[in-house]
Specification:
Helix content: 40-55%
Strand order of the largest sheet: 6-5-4-7-8-9
Largest sheet: 6 strands, parallel
Number of strands: 16
Shape: globular
Number of helices: 26
Length: about 625
């Protein structure tokens, strides 16, 4: 890491004091942990893998490349550029597959409401009707019929072929982007179709051309956002309500060991939301008290927690969000968690030892989750949602009796306030339901531009959330507004940058705007699936100004990307036409032609490109220069 980073990082593993505090206990208890495992792995890294110069796909491998010594082809004949791009495409496909699975769960949950087979309800009928109008469904029908038809249409859109109309792209993509995508042959089919095409293309001796593979990645990125992400988020709004800004609590201090604490972990809010609503019924609280607890609480963990945080007030039942995925082991080590209910990534495999040491019931509430020593696996089916929620409550009560008084709790005292619940609708509402005020403050220079910060949390480029927080500080002090999503968003919330107090850290122009609108300089837009939601805001701005996305004073940054879903979000951003910063550096540096394509040549095609850099100050300088250049192009 560069010495220009704003706060000293020596000797730390995390930006957050609560995590540092818990690591002392974790190490004293002799527990394996992600931070120490990182250091162990750092000693044995393969330089070929780091550069994208290795392949293990077939029995002729593993192959490695040393182009400067004449070893520029694998046994099959594939070169280093195509090999690195193929590895990246496989990562992209894994990320897309997880998003399309989440969408599948969303659509079948909506269908169950229409069919009357599940306990869920439609809370935002207006959004359902709006979606129906956008996609050509006759709204002069019973609301349940609309729910079924919408669910069926959205699921079908995930599977459409290139010969079928892509209703989601036509409804939600920027007007001027569609023709660009058609000319480049990256206008997408359905997500599942594109996934299948990418998987088949990644087989040995199928596609060995790095440009061909890159175009497939761009097409998959577009399909993922339009045919999966936007649909699933709109459906979650329909079921649980469209997010609106409200104050919430974050960090590990939200835990109280004298309560039965059920933590909901992953990305999907179904059972967590249902359980929160159940626990407001006094009969459940009485059951908890009968077991010796003060009551029963729901705890938000990572992205599921953020989905809940966006839509539910924090109170004595739902206590808030603990942080991002690197805080899961520290959370379990508090000895205050009774049930960890998991339904998607991130559910780290090593938490079995924490469950044993600190008496936690590990429960999968999805068909895709598998963790060693899991106590129960309960597949999610919407008609059984009530039973799943009831079982989690019972497990929490049973576990409390085993945990309380037997496991010594240790909970850091820190609780950080944040404003969560921003959405395109919320931003428009703050602006009087029109974009002109936002255009005016950008034109006037109070806000130079807008950056979407969407990423994970990684240890590769420094302590947990260090780059994310310091880059955000650098950007807002330059009068650049941030909309944030993903695990990086949780890091910013816990660090205090999504609070009104953070206004004081901003530049003079941004201070004026935030003070007037009573908003923080970092707007919490939600989870990684809200990449699609953020694109909707950018699309509204581009269409309002009648310009294309690459002309706007915007940028995207993923200062601590980590896993496969982040890679497909980044590829989408490039296809969308956005300047896209990534840190740490992707594993493609041994592929010079591919690097040139992604960082230079692609800009002439889509208008977007990838930039890299680990130093927050330098990265902020470059983003600001990009934004100022776009402002100049618009004559502002």
């Amino acid at each position: 890491m560069s010495e220009r980073i704003l706060e000293k990082a020596e000797g730390r593993v995390s930006y957050h004091d609560s995590v540092e505090e818990m690591l002392v206990r974790i190490r004293e208890d002799g527990m394996t942990n992600v931070f120490d495992r990182w250091m162990q792995q750092e000693k044995i890294r393969c330089k070929f893998c780091l550069q994208g110069l290795s392949c293990q796909l077939c029995s002729h491998g593993p192959c490695r490349w040393l182009p400067d010594k004449g070893m520029d082809k694998g046994v099959c004949g594939i070169g280093p550029d195509a090999n690195a791009m193929r590895k990246l495409l496989i990562q992209n496909t894994l990320g897309a597959g997880t998003y399309s699975h989440h969408a599948y769960e969303a659509y079948r949950t909506l269908r169950s409401i229409g069919e009357g087979t599940s306990p869920f309800q439609i809370k935002d009928e207006n959004k359902l009707k709006w979606m129906c109008e956008k996609l050509g469904i006759n709204t002069n029908q019973d609301i349940k019929q609309l729910a079924v038809q919408m669910a069926d249409l959205l699921e079908a859109q995930q599977h459409i072929s290139p010969q079928e109309p892509n209703l989601m792209v036509e409804a939600f993509a920027p007007k001027k982007r569609k023709e660009v995508w058609r000319k480049l042959n990256i206008y997408p089919a359905g997500t599942v179709h594109e996934e299948q095409n990418c998987v088949a293309s990644s087989l040995t001796n199928v596609d060995g051309d790095y440009t061909s593979l890159a175009l497939k990645a761009l097409r998959l990125g577009l399909a993922t956002i339009y045919n999966s992400q936007i649909g699933l988020e709109m459906v979650q709004d329909i079921i649980f309500g469209t997010p609106t800004p409200h104050e919430v609590n974050t960090d590990l201090g939200i835990l109280d060991p004298d309560y039965i604490n059920i933590a909901f972990n992953g990305h999907q809010p179904w059972i967590g939301a249902l359980t929160i609503e159940k626990l407001h019924d006094p009969k459940y609280q009485e059951k908890g008290k009968a077991a010796g607890a003060k009551g029963i609480r729901a705890v938000g963990s990572i992205e599921t927690g953020q989905e809940l945080l966006q839509r539910y007030p924090v109170d004595d039942v739902f206590v808030g969000l603990m942080g991002n995925w690197l805080t899961i082991e520290p959370m379990l080590a508090t000895g205050a968690v009774d049930v960890l209910a998991m339904e998607e990534n991130c559910s780290p495999p090593a938490i079995d030892s924490y469950a044993e040491k600190y008496q936690v019931a590990l429960v999968a509430i999805s068909t895709i989750i598998g963790v060693p020593r899991i106590q129960e696996k309960i597949p999610y089916f919407p008609p059984q949602a009530d039973e799943i929620s009831e079982r989690l409550i019972d497990l929490g009560i049973e576990n409390f009796k085993k945990r309380h008084g037997k496991v010594k709790p240790y909970v850091p005292k820190r609780i950080q306030k944040a404003i969560a619940g921003f959405s395109t609708e919320a931003v428009l509402a703050a602006l009087g339901n029109k974009l002109d005020p936002l255009v005016d403050v950008i034109t006037g220079g109070e806000i130079k531009g807008v950056v979407a910060l969407v990423n994970c949390s990684s240890l590769r480029n420094g302590p947990q959330d260090w780059n994310t927080v310091n880059l955000a500080k650098e950007l807002i002090k330059r009068d650049i507004l941030i909309v944030s999503a993903g695990c990086g968003n949780h890091g910013l919330e816990v660090a205090g940058l999504c609070s009104l107090e953070a206004i004081a850290m901003a530049g003079e122009g941004l201070i004026t705007v935030c003070s007037l609108l009573h908003i923080p300089p970092v707007l919490s837009f939600g989870t990684c699936t809200d990449t699609g939601r953020i694109s909707m805001l950018v699309t509204a701005l581009a269409d309002h100004l009648d310009v294309d996305v690459p002309q706007l004073p915007i940028a995207v940054t993923a200062p601590e990307w980590m896993e496969q879903k982040a890679t497909i979000d980044g590829v989408f951003a490039v296809a969308f036409g956005a300047y896209t910063h990534l840190s740490p550096t992707p594993f493609v540096t041994g592929a010079p032609n591919l690097v040139k394509l992604l960082t230079e040549d692609v800009e002439g095609l889509t208008g977007g490109k990838i930039t890299i850099g680990d130093d927050p100050v330098t990265v902020a300088d470059n983003i600001e220069a990009h934004i100022l250049n776009k402002r100049k192009g618009l004559g502002i």
